[in-house]
Each structure stands twice: as C-alpha cells, then as structure tokens.
Write the structure tokens for this entry.
Amino acid sequence: MSPERFVQALQKAVVHDNLAVYSELFRSTPVDKAVDPHWVRALTLFNGLDDENKHVLIEIICHTMVDTTANILGILDGGCPVAGIDGDVTLQVDGHRIGGELQELFLELSESG
C-alpha cells in the first residue's frame, strides 16, 4: 500500500466516516435517551445552538479529528518526538515501511477536500 492510499483510507475512516456518525448522533439523539453524562452535556450544548453554530461545532470536531490524526502521523513519521518513547517509531504495511511523509500527505489531502 502506498503512503497516498494509506492516508486516503485513514482520512475516510477517521475523519469522514466518524464525522458522519457524530453529526448523525448529535442531530438524532434525544437528550433523554443519552445515559453518559458527557454525552448528555454535549447534546444539551448542541441542541441549544442555532443551525449556523451547530455547523460551526461540527467543523470544530472535524478540525480536531484532522489535527489529532496529523499529530499521530507525525509521530509515526519520526518528526514529532514523544517524551518517554525511546527509539524509532515506524509504520509498516505488509512489512513495508510507509512512514516518513504521512503527516504532510494527510494534511495536504485534508486541505484539498
């Protein structure tokens, strides 16, 4: 698998698919059906927003997903050291190293669409 295909698959699974799930849950879950206190607070906040601000909140969630994924890819690329992890961190698919430019590829893909 090429690095480009990997980041495309990652973007679809982590950002697009998960964002669709979050958006649907926010829009369709009645607060009285939620049991997790965190989720109750999140739904209450979401339901108190007008449509424009609901859209803004979903955008914030999307950007958080992108930033978090990009940070993890930076660690896998070796460009973002993590305190407490000694040695090289690499990513392999079928025994082939694909890291080194994943963060950059992911961010370019995220900026383009």
